[in-house]
Amino acid sequence: MTKEVLVSIRGLQFVDNEVGQNASDEELDQIETICPGEYYYRNDAHYVCYEELMDDFSEPISNMIKLKGKEFSLWKKGPVNVQMVFSEGKKTMTDYFTPFGNILVAMDTKEVCVTENADCIKIHIAYGLEANYQFIADCNITIDIKSHNYA
Questions:
Q1: In CATH, what number is assigned to the domain containing residue 72?
Q2: 60 with 33: CB under 8 angstroms?
Q3: Are 32 and 142 in contact (CB under 8 A)?
Q4: β-pairing, 120-131 with 134-147?
Q5: Could you list the residue range(s) of the whole structural domain that residue 21 is in?
Q6: 3-state secondary structure 78-91
Q7: Residues 136, 142, 147, CA angle at the centre, nearest 5°?
Q8: End-to-end CA distance of the chain
Q9: pLDDT of residue 125
Q10: C-alpha–C-alpha distance, residues 73 and 34, integer Å
Q11: Of the chain's two ends, which shows fewer C-beta atoms within 10 Å, N or C?
Q12: CA distance 119 to 116
């Protein structure tokens, strides 16, 4: 894997901003974000750092991914701040800090599936999402990390 990578994240986004209500299929939208990033491997873990721009914020959000075994962690810093941990077979909770208020978020991780080769790492995560102790939806997220020169 090269230091320069492309990070593709595909998952679900809530169309309706009413967190706390069970989401129907009409309220969920498939989204994909593609960002350039930097990859490194240290202490038996994969790390990727990248920045993303969001429509509602003027400054970028700095992100760091850590993948070690069946545990996937994501840190976001900037206009929103959170550390999310997806650990297969475990339920984790965190505070999601936004300029609009804080949300207590829980991820009940069902599966963390990793496929890797010399130029690509593919991560699929299936989890149940809760916000402020209320079930929101069963979610799937797929992360592709590819060497910048990988076709």
A1: 2.40.128.20
A2: no
A3: no
A4: antiparallel
A5: 4-147
A6: CCCEEEEEEECCCE
A7: 150
A8: 13
A9: 96
A10: 18
A11: C
A12: 8
* C-alpha 55, offset from chain centre: 17
Please state whether beta strands 91-98 and 101-116 pair in parallel, antiparallel, or not at all (unpaired): antiparallel
Length of the chain: 151
96: β partners: 103
For residue 27, is pLDDT > 70? no
Radius of gyration of the chain (CA): 15
| Residue 53 CA, distance from chain mean position | 15
Whether the CA torsion 19, 28, 95, 79 is positive or negative: it is: negative
pLDDT of residue 28: 59
Give me the chain's average pLDDT, please.
Answer: 88
Domain count, the chain: 1
Q: Are 106 and 87 in contact (CB under 8 A)?
A: no
3-state SS assignment for residue 55: coil
pLDDT digits 0-9 by tens, 44-89: 999 999 999 887 778 999 999 999 999 999 999 999 999 999 999 9
